[in-house]
Design goal:
By secondary structure, this protein is α/β, with parallel strands linked by helices. 43% of the residues lie in helices and 11% in strands.
Amino acid sequence: DVGIVNAKEMIDYHSLEPDLRELCENLVFNKTLDATDQMLERTSYERAVIDAKKKGLAPPKKPRGPTPNLPRLQFPCDSMELPEANEPPLPPYAAARNHVPNPYKNSSVAHPKIQAIRDKSSLPAEKRALIDYQQPSDAYPAEFPYFVRGRDSLREYITKLFTTKIAIYDGAMGTMIQNYSKRNKLEEEEYRGERFKEWSCNVKGNNDMLSITQPQIIAGIYKQYLEEGESDMIGTNTFSSTTIAMGDYEMEPYAYELNYEGARLAREVCDEVTAKDPTRPRFVVGALGPTNRTASISPSVEDPAARNVTFDELVESYFEQVVGLVDGGCDILMVETIFDTLNAKAALYAVGEFLEMSGLDIPLFVSGTLVDQSGRTLSGQTGEAFYASIRHSKPMAVGINCALGTKQMTPFIERMSKAAECFVLAYSNAGLPNVMGGYDDTPEDMAEQYKAFFENGYVNFVGGCCGSTPPHIKAIRDMTAKYSPRPLPKKTKPKMWLSGLEDMKVEDQHNHLGLPFLNVGERCNIAGSMKFKKLMMAGDYESAMDIAKKQVEDGAHVIDINVDDGLLDGLAAMQKFVKIAVTDPEVSKVPFMLDASKFEIVLAGLKWCQGKCIVNSISLKVGEELFIEHATLLRKHGAAVVVMAFDEKGQAATEEDKVRICKRSYDILVEKVHFPPEDIIFDPNVLTIGTGLEEHNNYGVDFINATKKIKEQCPYVKISGGISNLSFGFRGVMKIRESIHAVFLYHAILEAGMDVGIVNAKEMLAIDEVDPEIRKAADDLVFNKSPDATEVMLDLTRKEKEAIEVRKKGGGAASEVKKSSWRDLDAKKRLEHALVNGISEFVDKDVEEARQTVNRPLEVIEGPLMDGMNVVGDLFGSGKMFLPQVIKSARVMKKAVAYLLPFMDKEKKDNMVKMGLNPDDFDENDDSNYAGKVLMATVKGDVHDIGKNIVAVVLGCNNFKVYDIGVMCSCELILEKAKEYDVDVIGLSGLITPSLDEMVVVAKELSKGGFKQPLLIGGATTSKMHTAVKISPNYTTNDHPVVHVLDASRSVTVVSSLLGEGKADFVEELGEEYEEMREDYYAGLEDRYFLSHEQAMEQKLKINFDESPPAPTPKKMGVTLIDSVTIEDIVPFIDWNPFFQTWELRGRYPNRGYPKIFNDETVGSEAKKLFDDAQKMMKEIIRDKSMWLKGVVGLFAANCSSDGEDVNVYESEADREAGKVWKSFCMLRQQAEKESDDAYLSLADFVAPAGFKDHLGMFAVSCFGCDELVAKYESENDDYSKIMAQALADRFVEAFAEKLHLDIRTSLWGYAPDEQLNEADLLKIKYDGIRPAPGYPSQPDHTEKSTMWHAIQAKELAGIELSESLSMMPASSVSALVFSHPESEYFAVGQVGRDQVESYAKRKGMELSLAERWLSPILNYERD
């Protein structure tokens, strides 16, 4: 009734803001656990609002508070009435699906892998044929409960057995052996028996070997359980019978025999007992134990990535065990006592492979072990997560055994019973171990404690583990008599059931906005996080784990892992990251999404994940056959999969194509691969809207409509998409972008059924948080409701940008700005706009208008033109403009300057006349108005200049005068021109490895000549490390450092730093960095071990050419001129990815590479413009025939030399027979020590030795006409077109090489006449054979080109020349050796030692010093 209050502060209940009222009710009535935290968050917000009002600032963003979960859209399959379950879920194998009885005729199972295990086994010869166990079909009556092997389906029998009574398993084998040894002598001598009397190590304790040495003991124990315990099934004495576990006793070769004998003894005893009462057939359960290794847990405290076993090693070991158990006569296979789920997954993979190879239906049971009352396995999984991880194997029964007593196991078997879709088993210990390691529960105790299992209907199959004996089993059996077994659960809608350390059903998830949507964390992705990339490149996995943890804390349901980068070994990095991540419980509690562009990388990652992962991604782009192969492997590993809406024709853009490709993919996956439909995630491609192009306007509608149709036509699938692609046309204004995403996701999720997305959750807006005006515009844009939707959104974007600027200055809302065109600006501003936007259309007119407003034409250059170029430089430096845009700006600048030059020349001459001077004597090269002068040169012997040209343009755009003296510049010319032009900086460029040595020569000569200019080093073959170690020490001082410039975008910063006030600090910091790099380099040489050349030769790749013979004789031997291939012919073979790299355009995940780069938020728009320009120029080149192709191919008889290090080529088959060597290609071999057992490779390894008819191919190809086209564009001051022409010429010749290699394989050589690969597969090297080039990693010596040129007459026939440094001319040329053997592969020779170089020089007949010079970049020692 009464309260002491401040009446003025009281608020009416109904006037409270609804969200605040809800918070208050939650707090007052204690409705939610986080009510206090939410109210504290709201309190902080209200305080911030007060502070903002005081300071005149915009109010802060309001916290969301409690968010109700919104309902998931329902589809017809969601309400589909599912039939009652009459058996456990079936495996995908035909025999299981069709209930085909196992014929028990193992001698007819003759798969080569299975037979190989039998052939190498230790089993005595007289027993090897005793592997068949079929019974006469009339041995027993044809109805349940009778069973006849070969006649009846055991799957059907077990289903009837487990649904009619609680079946009984046996008890502990170890306990019974211990009890036997207490009454009888069972010491080392008895364990060895007569057969292993002289064994080299102690074997007592190896209970499994008693099946061989003391079979009567094991058979007796089996019989006790069957007769006294009345077991329905008994487990074989094979718990440790794997090659891995037998390693402790040095008995690995006996694994098959141990399993065979363990199962055969059980088979004989079961048949004996069954014969006494055929109404109770007894069955043999082949036991596969966990091994003594853990694939998920590091054995080293110091190294979380260390493992003492691999997945593949486990699979091999388990596969051999399965073969032995089945050949021994087991009926059922049980993977048991699993404390590390990854071990179990390896065992299940091995079982699956065996069943696929054999065509048999053998029921599978799985039993995990929870190590303590936490209810988790040793590797950290909950029971539910364990089940989710292995359910893909479709076991008939799953459960828990060992570690716990029956009482302690009860809550966990209850949870397993609720989770499992199949039958449930349990066999606990006889209590917990006492202080002496024994077990105290009596048979009666154990039976009484099991009573809770039976009363609650938790189990179908029970037995005992440690400490249990036949009396225990008998007591349990008696207790079960009055109880019914657990019924199979009712079938429910299939759900994607993922797992890390904990399980998660995707369909049950809601995100922080209350949407039924799975947030996949994006920050452990090299392309999505620069911080993560830097950590991975530095090998700082510990800090990378912190990023993963933060994502989980921020609400990621799943962590995306992607380590794709050209400078990173993706295979090794993925494996190491996953191995560390699974040991960190804060990271691995959630499932992983393994994400890579190469399938082998995700597959390698899968093999280190104990949980159920998502793999991102596969598609029909690779063709149906490979798509099925990939999907089948993922199904076997139990992974869910993202399937992109791509097919052989490309990316789906329209609604029709999205639905068509996804439906086709679904039908293949479900019908042919038997992939669970609930484990399929389709990504139908979110494409960009609001681009101004009419054909893009409906992309949002197409995606949403397609999403709904796909989910209607493809029951149970999920839909995902890259949301950031949708709005990247509005980049830079997050409020607009988030609003578009909010509208799109709201409708896509709630009205179409979208389920999944890779997101940054913090940036997501709820639909109610979107401003009404923006929401209306976003709705019009997303659903293409209005023709002016893009313009409206652009206008709102402009207003928001203005509002942001006003807020930055402390003001309120932005005022409305009058719409205007840039053509309305004055001439100076128009010029600045034209430069920034690369518009040359009005340049002459605007320059003339600007010239009329100034006293001197130079003022136009120094004023508006340089102002515009300064803006371009700033935007480029900050990453807001990209190289193609800068080149276009330079084109505008050059055109403007070219217009002004006549006026400037006239002015200079007029001034000279006024001064009484001869006007013809004026200096045309006056460069006093520039920020600095830079000399650029491609060094001697190298003809590649596209990168140098780009740098020159970028520097020119920033008011540096660039003197580009061309290609193949001798040291003398470089020094001469540097003096002549009095430059401030010298820049050297090179592409081929000999250029590195030439740069060292130039540096030394600059030093001798007393030059003071800083030296820049750049080009594809250069590196910061080489610059620091090899070049810098020969020239660097504080006045003139040597600086490696990574790419064009860094050149302005570097040159400005070298010529500006901060030079001293820049040079000091650079010097310290390079000194540290030199120390690291030389320390690394000391730490790294190299094999001697002789040792490396001993460990070379040894191909068995008898089993894998060389390719047949080429159809066209000798030399062939190729001059009929046109540019049009090679267009389908063009790889466009390097084209964008040339222009320094790089998309970020998920938009790496062509064509996905067009969807990239940052560079996509510019990449598309660039590509369109390239297509336009390419059509002109084809039309005008301004570029053409020519090449030459040679195919010759060849053999590896007698020492295995070179390849000898013969001019004819007769010369080969006579041993008359024509040419020798000298090869180099790897010498750096490897951590693996991999061979030390040389290209010579891929060619057969004398006695075999092997061959070697070679070719050289060029694109002609580029130089002439470049000269034309240079005369027009068109740098953009000049660089475009060079970039296209490079693509043309690479595509020519790709096509020619195809022609060699299919016709000229013809060793693969039926090869059918699309262009994408060709670029991924999915064919037999390789084409390495001299001077590249597999054969780093350019001098081998000379041998090739003489052999194929490249200069005489095709006009392709070699410079003195063996650079090919024209610059757009490619050469290669062609190897055909399917085991040939690309590799990097790496560094080599003095002993190999000496041998190499001797074999080539070359002076050692000359050989060392050519091989300088790869020497592991300092040459004299």
